[in-house]
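Lab meeting notes turned into a lecture example. A postdoc, R.K., suggested we walk through two folding results consecutively so the class can see how the record format repeats. The first protein's sequence and structure tokens come next.
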Amino acid sequence: MNARSFFSELKRRRVYGVAVAYVVVAWLFIQVATQVFPFFSIPNWVVRLIVLLTIIGFPIAVVCAWAFEVTSEGIKLEGEVDRTITRKTGRKLTALIVIVAAVAAGVTVFRFLHSQQCMEAAKQRPLAVAIESKSIAVLPFENRSEDKANAYFAEGIQDEILVRLAKIADLKVISRTSTQHYKSAPENLREIGQELGVAHLLEGSVQRAANRVRVNAQLIDARTDAHLWAQTYDRDLADVFAIQAEIARAIAEQLQAKLSPNEKKAIEQPPTTDVAAFDIYTRAKSLLLTATFSLAAEPDLRKAIELLDEAVKRDPSFFDAYCQLAYAHEYLYGQTGSG
């Protein structure tokens, strides 16, 4: 038998059709198994076994298609079959292949569309997961003092509240450098919350006049724009540390943060007992922040060092001032080579 007659015989005996039908049915069966078996907690090795058996079964199916014919009278050897019967059987086989192929195409389209939906859901899911419910950013406080030069004092209040909140381990607090470029009273709080990855925002204002200070603070749920808490403190300037501690405690209570005894003590501990030293310290920190984002940082650094020296002279136990002084000297040395 030459090659041409061999391939003609393969066609006559519908070996090609059986091979195509086998591949389509096997593929469809494997797809159904991979989708349905996990639902019934069937082990993965069963699916792998099915794949292996279908591969082994392919040559067997081809050999059987060559040697046997399926007729209305049952399975017979190819040489014993009436050709009129085989033509009818062939048309049925062709119809079966078309039907199975259509079902397989439908399953393929369904799986593709389902995978696209899963990919879209996966892209959106991290946004919801990343934002922790006990996360907060302290936005810049607005300076409402008549003397606009008191802006540094509003920055100092904001910074101290942030520092106290950061001492609470159950809270996620965003750094000041991440929030500094936002306005004191931004319009789109939801957008800011998403950009910073926080669920809550604290915004406020500070008004200082002589020996009086008024601090207004409000806590906002950035996910819903809902105001959760607001308070106005109108006190003597000497009570500024107590105001900061009260705001920190109120926020921790609103966010249901757990406070250990040491954390309660830490947020109530003032950085210094000298209000004048604190005032000088906040001016120096404002200059240091400006120097961080400035190309000509040396003048601000030298002025900050001068102020911090004055602050530690007023209160030799002012630990935070010493830390900022060390940082300022190191930064100045990096900028100019001299401290």
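The second example is placed directly after the first for contrast:
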Amino acid sequence: MNSASFKRGAAGLVGLMLAAFCMIGRGAAIAETSVEIDAPYHLQPGDVVEISVWKEQDLKREALVRPDGGLSFPLAGDLQVAGLTVAQVRQELEQRLVKFIPDVTVSVAMQQINGNQVFVVGRVNRPGAYKFERPLDVMQALSLAGGATEFAGVDNIRILRRGRDGRQQSLEFAYSEVARGRRLEQNIVLQSGDTVVVP
């Protein structure tokens, strides 16, 4: 093999290796995204769950998550469940009920998802509150609201988010950039209570 052929072969091998590394990197990014999307649902005020205790007919009922994030259940008393998953609520109930019912088995099932909602306001065709069961990003929320109106300032959209400490932060969103596939990190997954403001 002459020198030119060797160089072409080496360049081709390097190219194949770079392509393989890129594919692995993309695969890792996809896997990371899927983990985030498949994250379990966390209860919010307004949600309704059905709670039942095996072999205890009197301990089966629907329970509403109150505005303060709590719910009540016989023998277990009052529980703070906002922000918990269904599995975590089941574990908490079993820990409380085992004092009264040995080998207790509790089932908790979602009945109504009412608390998980975002608000889209301003110059959109259908402003209002939108409930969601799966992760929802800014572009999807704007689509639910019917898109922006003709004179909307789509590159000055703000997402208002209030933290647990009560403080509110404002996040930028430039529709034109995201629509062209740029600065996609702006297209965040919304949290319950977020407000998308379209000026």
